[in-house]
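Thread amino acids onto this structure.
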């Protein structure tokens, strides 16, 4: 009996030591993301599965540098960030998958979160979190959590605004993703309209409430931007909760996000979406906007975007997208509960 007990004890000890040896690398891997070099940046955190690769930039602005399907990046990365050489197209400002807080033209300077370094922690095999330094003027810290699906391009992005100041602050989520080339932007039109043509245009510092533009049309329930508009900045009033960008490369980039028809939106014209497309056509800025968040000291608010990439041929010159197919691709996407808005 004594021999049996000693043998059992030895086995248990051996199993315990084996478990420690196996667990330790997993714990270390969970805390520190796998990294790659990308352009002018070294040691960029990476999430990837068999089809999709996501590369992050905590060095400057807590952004996404690459979001690619089978090697094709859906994001515009400036020549400067790729090579270190300055170019008129893209300049030296942060490019690619940017996030921010608004309202635009009202929010205080966001130097720490937009240009500063972020901390990074891996929270799972296909997830990580990045955290900014507190904003001296905004009074907030930003946290961005990213989770990549194991078997698709589905990337869940959650930005949380945390009031770390001693005063009440008011902000909103503002996504500022530079997608690859102007392509075709599709915004499904749902909800009661506020604008005569379902969009407004920023002209010379003012708003044109009923603009006309040869590159913008309404077709089969979508607002369709088929090329750079006569003025780069547009704003939309749709509550559909998604948009799509057809890229010339054959990628279809879909963003899903919650909308709140009964809440206030503090952007200049109460926008739920805006876009910015330069005349060069090298990019379009896809900008879902969240509702107003009034946060007392210690309070926080979150906003969720869900990204996905799909192979879909771009129409030939003069051709038109199959909008029924675009809607079917969206409608087949799985539901993901949105985190937010205020906690």
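Threaded sequence (343 positions):
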């Amino acid at each position: 009996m004594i021999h049996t007990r000693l043998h059992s004890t030895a086995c248990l000890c051996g199993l315990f030591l084996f478990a420690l040896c196996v667990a330790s690398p997993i714990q270390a891997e969970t805390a520190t993301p796998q990294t790659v070099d990308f352009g002018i940046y070294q040691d960029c955190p990476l999430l990837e599965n068999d089809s999709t690769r996501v590369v992050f930039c905590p060095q400057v602005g807590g952004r996404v540098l690459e979001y690619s399907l089978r090697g094709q990046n859906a994001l515009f990365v400036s020549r400067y960030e790729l090579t270190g050489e300055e170019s008129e197209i893209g300049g030296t400002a942060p490019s690619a998958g940017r996030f921010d807080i608004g309202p635009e033209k009202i929010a205080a300077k966001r130097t720490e979160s937009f240009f500063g370094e972020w901390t990074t922690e891996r929270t799972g095999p296909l997830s990580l979190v990045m955290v900014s330094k507190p904003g001296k003027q905004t009074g907030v810290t930003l946290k961005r959590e990213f989770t990549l699906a194991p078997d698709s391009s589905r990337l869940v992005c959650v930005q949380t605004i945390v009031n770390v100041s001693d005063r009440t602050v008011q902000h909103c989520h503002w996504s500022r993703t530079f997608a690859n080339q102007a392509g075709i932007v599709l915004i499904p039109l749902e909800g009661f309209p506020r604008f005569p043509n379902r969009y407004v245009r920023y002209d010379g510092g003012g708003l044109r409430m009923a603009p006309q533009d040869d590159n913008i049309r309404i077709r089969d329930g979508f607002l369709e931007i088929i090329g750079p508009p006569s003025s780069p900045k547009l704003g939309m009033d749709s509550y559909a909760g998604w948009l799509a960008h057809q890229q010339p490369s054959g990628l279809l980039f879909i963003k899903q996000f919650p909308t709140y028809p009964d809440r206030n939106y503090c952007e200049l014209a109460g926008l739920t979406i805006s876009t910015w497309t330069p005349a060069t056509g090298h990019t379009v800025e896809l900008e879902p906007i969240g509702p107003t968040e009034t946060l007392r000291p210690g309070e926080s608010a979150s906003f969720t975007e869900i990204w996905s990439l799909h192979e879909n041929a771009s129409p030939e010159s003069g051709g038109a997208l199959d909008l029924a197919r675009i809607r079917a691709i969206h409608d087949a996407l799985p539901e993901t509960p949105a985190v937010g808005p205020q906690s």
